Amino acid sequence: MSDLIAQLDTEGYAVLRGFLSPAEVAEVSTEVDRVYQEGLKHHATYRDHNLLFEILDDPKAQRRVVLQAHWTAWISPLLERLRRNEKFFAVLEPFLGPDIKQITHQLHWKPPGAKYTFYRFHQDARFREGKIKTRDYLRSTVTTGLAIDRQTVANGALRIIPRSHRLGYLGLSDDGPIMVGQTQDEELRRCGLDPASIVTCEMEPGDLLLWTLFTAHGSAPNTSDYDRRFMINSYVRAADSERGEWAFRGGVSTPLGNEPQICKYEQLRERPGPFYVEADWTEEARTRASIPLPARK
Question: DSSP string spanning 12-25?
Answer without folding.
Answer: SEEEETTSS-HHHH
